[in-house]
Write a structure and sequence with these properties.
2 copies of one chain form a homodimer. Chain A is α/β, with parallel strands linked by helices. Chain A has 2 domains: 120 residues, Response regulator (Rossmann fold, 3-Layer(aba) Sandwich); 95 residues, Arc Repressor Mutant, subunit A (Orthogonal Bundle), CATH 1.10.10.10. Helices cover 40% and strands 22% of the residues of chain A. Chain A has 9 helices and 12 strands. In chain A, a hairpin with a 2-residue loop joins strand 8 and strand 9. In chain A, helix 7 packs across helix 8 and helix 7 packs across helix 9. Chain A is elongated. The relative contact order of chain A is 0.09. Chains A and B meet through helix 6 of A and helix 8 of B.
DNA sequence: TCTCAATATGACAGAAATATGAAATTCGAT
DNA sequence: ATCGAATTTCATATTTCTGTCATATTGAGA
C-alpha cells in the first residue's frame, strides 16, 4: 500500500487526531474534517484515495453521506470505510446497502484499520501486486518480495529493493536525485543527495554478476534512468 | 453456499422452529436442540458445518458453551453465530473474546441471517481439511492436528501450529508482522508485533532438527515468508 | 591535453531490525 | 486455590543496513 491520500470525516476531535496520527505514521497523507458539509467542500476540488467515515455525524449522518457520494459518478469510486461503535452493529446492515466497502468497530487497533484499508483497496483493484519483468529476464515480485534473473534469486537490501521496484514501475525516464529521494525514501527524509549514488552503486553491484548493471544508467548532470535500451 | 448441516441450540421452541424452517427453506439440513447438554451429545458423534447459538440458554450459557467448544481441538473449527436480543448488546463484547464468529440480533431477517452465515463461512475458509505437504516432506494435517517430517511427528504448541498452518496455506508470500497478527491471532488481538518474532523463533526451533528451518524466511524490513525456494 | 565538476567506489561508524533466552503473566485444568 | 503449560513481554546479543565521508575515476569543454 503506497502513500495514500485519506479523507477522515469524524466529529470527535480526539478520534480525528488519533486517526491522523495513525495514518500519517503509516506514511499516508491525511485530511480530517468534522462533518459532511466540510467534507463535501473538499471533495469538490480534490479526490482522496479513501474515505474514513464516522457513522454518527452531526447534520448529515454517515449513511446519508455515503449514499450521497454513491450518487455522484466521480465520487462513487472512492472506497469508504465506516467507523462504528460496538453497539451500532445494526449500522452494518444499513451500511452494506448504501455502498460502504467495509467497517471498523471502535475501538480498533492501528493494525486492524490498516489491514482493512489494504483489503478494501485490493478489492477496489489498485493492483500493486503483479510481477514486473524485463525482456532481459529480470523479474521483481512485490508479493513474494523477491528479485530474480532467469529464476536465479538475487539478494538486495530494503532500500535497493524499493529503488529497483520504483525504477521497474517507471522505466525509460530520468529521475533526479531529489525525485528519487521523494519517491523511494519518502517526502520527509532528510538525506544527502549523494546518498542516492551509494544506493545506485549497491544496486548495480547486485545486478552486475547477472550482467544487468547496464539497466541502471547515469545521466550526467541530471540523475538516473532505468532502461533496457543501451545508454 | 452449498447444502450445510447446521446445528441450532435455542431454548425457545418457537424460535427453534422458525430457524429450522428458514434454514431448511434455504436448502440446509438442520438439527435443533434446546440446550447445551443435548448439543454436546450430538457433537460427540457428528460435526456440523455451523452452529447457531442462543445467548441465553438454560444451564450452560451460550458464551460458556462457545468457550467450551473452542477448547476442544475437533470442535474449535466449527463456526459459531450467536443469536442475541437487542438489549443484550454487551453479549457481543464477551462473545468476541470467546471465539464467536458473528452475531445476529433478534429479531432478524432471513436475508440477514443467511448473509451472515455466508460471510462467516467465507472467512472460515472453505475446505480446510486436507493434509498440506511440501516437497521436502513436511506435512500438516488440520483434521488430526498433527505435523510431521517424513512421517516422523513434530510437536508444536497451539500458536506455532496455527502459524505454520497459515504459512502452508499461503506460501511464497511475504507477510508483515501486522498481517500475521491479523490472520493468525485475529484482528482484535492487542499484542506487540515483536511477539511474532518469538513464535517464529519457536517454530524454527521445532523445524530445525529436521533441517526445515529454512522454510521460514525473514524478509528484513518487511516480515516473514514461507517458501521452499531458497532465501 | 588539461582542468574542473560530476559521479563512482570503498570503508566505517552509528542506527535499525531481528534473534534469542529468560522472566512475567495469563488461562485453563485439577 | 494451585499447578502447569502456553503466551507475551522484556532485556540483551547479533546481524544487517544506512548515510556520510574521503578518495579515485570519468567526461565535457576550453
Amino acid at each position: 500500500m503506497s502513500e495514500l491520500h485519506v479523507l477522515v470525516v469524524e466529529d470527535e476531535a480526539a478520534v480525528r487526531e488519533l486517526l491522523s496520527a495513525t495514518l500519517e505514521g503509516a506514511g499516508h497523507r491525511v485530511t480530517a474534517v468534522p462533518d459532511a458539509h466540510k467534507a463535501k467542500a473538499l471533495l469538490s476540488r480534490d479526490l482522496p484515495d479513501m474515505l474514513l467515515l464516522d457513522w454518527m455525524l452531526p447534520g448529515m449522518s454517515g449513511i446519508e453521506f455515503a449514499k450521497w457520494l454513491k450518487r455522484d459518478e466521480r465520487l462513487a469510486a472512492v472506497p469508504i470505510i465506516m467507523l462504528t461503535a460496538r453497539d451500532e452493529e445494526n449500522a452494518k446492515v444499513a451500511g452494506l446497502e448504501s455502498g460502504v466497502d467495509d467497517y471498523v468497530t471502535k475501538p480498533f487497533s492501528t493494525r486492524e484499520l490498516l489491514a482493512r484499508m489494504r483489503a478494501v483497496l485490493r478489492r477496489a483493484g489498485a493492483d500493486d501486486s503483479k510481477v514486473i519483468r524485463t525482456r532481459g529476464g529480470l523479474a521483481l515480485d512485490p508479493v513474494q518480495h523477491r528479485v530474480s534473473v532467469d529464476n536465479a534469486p538475487l539478494s538486495l537490501g530494503p532500500t535497493e529493493f524499493k529503488l529497483l521496484h520504483f525504477f521497474m514501475v517507471h522505466p525509460d525516464r530520468v529521475y533526479s536525485r531529489a525525485q528519487l529521494l521523494d519517491m523511494v525514501w519518502g517526502a520527509h527524509a532528510y538525506v544527502e543527495e549523494r546518498t542516492v549514488d551509494v544506493h545506485i552503486r549497491r544496486l548495480r553491484k547486485v545486478l552486475e554478476p547477472a550482467g544487468m548493471e547496464s539497466l541502471i544508467q547515469t545521466v550526467r548532470g541530471v540523475g538516473y534512468r532505468f532502461s533496457e535500451q543501451a545508454g
